[in-house]
Amino acid sequence: MKLQIPNALLVALLSAWLLACGGSPLCAAVPIAETNSAYLFTSFRDADQKFLRFLYSFDGYHWTNVPGTFLEANVGVNKQFRDPSILRAPDGTFHLVWTAGWHGDQGFGYASSRDLIHWSEQKFVPVMTNEPMTVNVWAPELFYDNGQFIIVWASTIPGRFPDRLEKHDNNQRLYFTTTTDFTNFTPAKLFFDAGYSAIDGFILRDAARFVLVNKDNSRTNLNLRVAFAQSPLGPWQSISEPFTQKFTEGPCALKIGDDWLIYFDAYRQHIFGAVKTSDFKFFTDITKEVSFPEGHKHGTAIQVSREILAGLLQNTN
Q: Does residue 7 carry a pLDDT above 50?
């Protein structure tokens, strides 16, 4: 028989555990920057492609479902919910963007929240209407730098780039827009073209440089690479060889101790995997060391306070 722990008890145990950890050598191995913090991973499910879900972790390696759902998508032509990307702005507001549809939507969904439970009215952000032949807007990803939000996504504009082995309506490149208020957005521009079809661009800051983790979506590869720049807007250079196996996508990363953990969706195996690296030159596959709930699909992972996590665990949606 499977033991079911009530949410209220789970919250109480969580709070007691976190309080007990303060300064305790027993918790020294837990690689969280602050003892009152946890990690949160946005998620969705292929079965419905409609709801925002969360996972949580105390070490970045072992992840557990947060019970319930926290937002039901209702914008765009298809009103889908996929690939949720989240970040917390300096003022404490959480900003969320997501894929609103496989095809036919020339923009993405957006909402904001202070507690991840109560959300603003959803918006559809039409970023590619200036390119009427655009087939899709996939996996928008958020990054904050120097007072502005950068949103990167993948789109196909048929005929814009040589197809080679790609289908005419699935030859992706990464594009971007910027905003300071999620009301006014700069015109979409090309963000990354390395001569291959690319999707799922994730930006991170590594000391004084920026790293772009992306999926090489060409038919021969279908795996992950990194590129480097001195600015989060590029130009992106020194593109690596692939560092994951074929049929991997949806990367995001967390800094855990001295290492970066890059998580990815191994979609043919129906599992989530990870590699770790300290220099983005050498990558160690740690898929056997991480664990994720069955059905988890890719989003982004961030660090949150214990109060935010406790509020989510208490929620009964």
A: no
Q: Where are the beta strands (DSSP E) in the chain?
A: 37-43, 51-57, 64-72, 82-88, 94-99, 108-113, 123-125, 138-145, 148-156, 172-179, 189-192, 198-206, 209-216, 223-229, 249-256, 259-266, 271-277, 284-285, 301-305
Distance CA 197, CA 171 (A): 5
Q: Which helix (H) or strand (E) holds 312?
A: helix 306-314
The count of other CB atoms within 10 Å of the CB of residue 135 is 21
Report the chain's terminal Cα–Cα distance, integer Å: 25
pLDDT tens, 30-66? Answer: 444 446 899 999 999 999 999 999 999 999 999 999 9
pTM: 0.89
| Spatial separation of the C-alpha atoms in residues 172 and 55, rounded to whole Å | 29
Give the residue with greater pLDDT, 2 vs 226.
226
Partnered with residue 259 across adjacent β-strands are 256
Residue 301's Cβ-count burial label (10 Å; 0-12, 13-18, 19+) is buried
Residue 109 belongs to a domain with what CATH number?
Answer: 2.115.10.20
The whole-number pLDDT of residue 80 equals 97
Domain region containing 72: 7-314
Residues 178 and 151 sit within 8 Å (Cβ to Cβ): yes
The answer as to whether 2 is a domain residue is no
pLDDT in tens, 175-227: 999 999 999 999 999 999 999 999 999 999 999 999 999 999 999 999 999 99
Q: Map residue 307 onto helix, strand or coil.
A: helix
Domain membership of residue 1 (yes or no) is no
If one counts the domains in the chain, the total is 1
